Amino acid sequence: MTTRVAASSGTIVDERVSSPRHGSLGANADRPDGVAKVQGGFAFSSDMWAENMLWGATLRSPHPFARIVSIDASAAWRIPGVESIVTSEDVPGQATYGLIMQDQPVFAAVGDVVRYSGEPIAAVAADHPETCRRALAAIVVEYEILDPVVDPERCIDGTAPDIHPAGNVYRHQRIVSGDPDVVGDVVVEGSYEIGMQDQAFLGLEAALAIPDPGGSGLELYVATQWLHEDRKQISACLGLPEESVRLVLGGVGGAFGAREDISLQVHTCLLALRTGRPVRIAYDRRESFYGHVHRHPARIWMRHHASRDGRIVKVEARMVFDGGAYCSTSPAVLINGITHAQGPYKCDNAVVDGWAVRTNNPPCGAMRGFGVVQACYAHESQMDKLAAACGLDPVSIRLLNAMETGDRLITGQIVDSVAPVEECIRRTAEIPLPPDLPDRVDERELPGGTGLTADRRHIRRGVGWGVSIKNLMYSEGFDDYSTARCRLVDGIVSLKFATAEVGQGFVMLAQQIARTVIGIDEVVLDTIDTQVGSSGSTSASRQTWMSGGAVKKACDAVAAGLLAHEAAHRGVAVERLHVEGTDIVDRDTGHRRPAKEAARGLELDETVEYHHPKTEDLDENGQGNCHVAFAFVAHRAVVDVDPDLGLVKVVQIATAQDVGRVLNPVSCLGQIEGGIAQGLGLAVMEEIVVENGEVRNPSFTDYLLPTFLDAPAVEAVFVEQHEPKSPLGAKGVGEPPCISVTPAIANAIRAATGRELPRVPIRPYDICL
Amino acid sequence: MITSSYTLSVNGRRHEIDDSWIGESLLYVLRERAGLPGAKGACEQGECGSCTVVIDGRAVCSCLVMAASVTDSEITTVEGLGPDGALSDVQRAFLDEGGVQCGFCTPGFIVAVHHLLERDPQPSDHDVREALSGNICRCTGYGRILEAVHNVVRRRNS
Fold this sequence. Notes:
The complex is a heterodimer.
Chain A: E1 2-6, E2 11-13, H1 34-39, E3 54-60, E4 66-72, H2 74-77, E5 82-86, E6 96-97, E7 104-105, E8 113-114, E9 120-126, H3 129-138, E10 140-145, H4 152-156, E11 169-177, E12 186-194, E13 206-211, E14 218-222, H5 227-238, E15 245-249, H6 265-275, E16 279-282, H7 285-291, E17 294-295, E18 298-306, E19 312-322, H8 330-339, E20 349-357, E21 364-365, H9 372-390, H10 394-401, H11 421-430, E22 460-472, E23 482-489, E24 492-496, H12 506-518, E25 523-525, H13 543-570, E26 577-580, E27 583-586, E28 592-594, H14 595-598, E29 603-610, E30 629-642, E31 647-658, H15 665-684, E32 690-691, E33 694-695, E34 713-719, H16 741-753, E35 759-760, H17 764-768
Parallel strand pairs in A: 3-16, 12-35, 14-15, 17-21, 19-20, 24-25, 31-34
Antiparallel strand pairs in A: 1-2, 1-34, 3-9, 4-8, 4-10, 5-9, 6-7, 11-20, 12-18, 13-14, 13-16, 18-19, 22-30, 23-24, 23-29, 26-27, 27-28, 30-31, 32-33
Chain B: E1 3-10, E2 13-21, H1 26-33, E3 52-55, E4 58-61, E5 74-76, H2 89-97, H3 106-119, H4 125-131, H5 143-156
Parallel strand pairs in B: 1-5
Antiparallel strand pairs in B: 1-2, 3-4, 3-5
Helix pairs in contact in B: 2-5
């Protein structure tokens, strides 16, 4: 069952015989936050305000590596309106935080070192943002500047001095699978480089902390991806019990991985506790570039061995991820990278070596695709090389090697997910190519757009492919469970969960689930906060599966209670009743009664946890069932290239994505189109340029994001094969769209230009010089 | 800090702004002093369009305008577009077509689309893309926003 989406006309043609009702699972629905968002009244975390509120701001190091000799804040204290200045000495609890390793200081301390340009040193609270700026400028910090470690290879070979007591290697992991010495008839290799991408969510970091009277605790409104993990780290640093720190989700203006780590949370809380007044910190764009982790830049060498007819025999790879100054999620990103080295292809033998290392570059962590983006860029570049070496076209080589359910991964894990790789490729190939560029063309259709810069006669068109596999949920034994509460009171359903709504539309999906399971359309959502159990992070394409699973389980329990109530009321066996649409139906008699009516006077309340099957750590040879499930996608890119100026226009992206089951067609398509735009950004424009530890382009003027003019036509097909392991039959759809589109575009540019182009983003001078 | 008091005319209503630091942008004053948080700040250098408002018929980035310099102007923000609190056709279309995800860019887009369609009721896709290229959206990839514009044009011309 597939749904063809013709994005050019914008119509979604659903081939299902009977359509589900609007607002239920499988149909489109109204976002509960939609009206507020289009009217401007939706409260993002940067819109939070409290009576008597102060503004906070952060002092950051201008050096990537330096010893702090002294901090003198006396002049700042004298500025009228300054209410508080805090440094490392004012951190009452744990001095450091971190998702995996608690190695990142709340503030760098006198006598200790700063390890990246932008590391926090102090924070101030004052009556106006301008007062804050002046106070920061008045704080005098004396530094002893040190020589930064910026080359990851020096961390691997041990020639760089340790820049942290925990050393310069976050993790080294090897995968040896099958026969490591086997040799193929055909061998292709390449070295690839992926630049540092920024998540660049629009809604900048912001939080409002409101202290309890007496300072025994506080409430923090914050835009984050995981309230409970934030609370754990914040309360440890504040030296407060977790229950004294209450987190409420402030409206989140996009996340994409950048809100998994602590940024301003502890600073805001410290200032609020210190002053006894509400404090809001809101970053500007420049500070945001310094204030959150980025996508790991990576260098990957890869060698493929294949039989003469193009079947992959062995993959060899060496992957180096630059984690920057602090650990964040680097070890997990590394594991994702190396365990996806084979791509969505059958491969019996492998030798993969991977490092994630510490340098004085900006800290890197989660971004949509989480390590797999880097691996995919390398293996998909390799697949085109392999195709050429075997005399095959890019589609044939991929079909020949396409992974299937039941295949064994290089980690030894059997793929027991639905794995429609072949169908994704075939259905993408069936999507019509765009018409050729006419001889006379509107200049706005040419690379570079208006300004008559491109000469039509020189434009070269190229077509390229990328296919990917992505793990869903957390890996390596992590129990990233999700909690949900469902109440039914007098015919109204209310749901409570701590799932971070970051824009993806989980709040809408949760309502769809409840309407479908219970048969009552009126579904109220409680505040998203820490007054209920954890939902895990909104990351790893996991919330539809995990929090969707929890909401479904809670709603199932309530529905069972409702059916039992109705059975008792009617004096029939409960087994005869089920929810159909908005009715409770008796299978034997066909008798129907609206579920809402049956629920009158009834009160039910269920809180449940949903856990995914356990996974394992990898052993020293990288063997183990470390992942929960997988999703797959194919991309075909069509580009026009101006070889004179090195400009690229991405004309069309065709894609077929393994989504399991479409729960909301418009949301699914929105994830696909949005992910494609981010993957396009990495392919041809987005990079944080770092020179000797310094960020050179921390602004939207210099860090280029895809605009409306850069967005290609997207032709998308949903490949629907219900995933039996998934509680709703659906797979997460967030990450796959942005993974293989990047190498698809790179391969298309290679096809157009004949150039090797080993790194992304591909810059104009990579093409034209 | 040098402060001044002045009056702004926003969405047909006069807002008295008291003791405002002279360096405050229109974006800051709208959000922090006039109780109109619809315009958003995401770059504060005129690159992203999240803060788009209309001043005397021109769509501008309110982060680049000094509030004290537009005391004689009529300012329209996203809060002033819907008739009596109801949704405008553009706002409705953004919801119907899936043009809203995180919603942070949405108010700026809504203002920019209204402004575009007032100038050009039947824009080509090229015109739409060009006109809205100053508004960055990081979630949607723009596809559903383009559909929202199509939707409004269709309805207004039928």
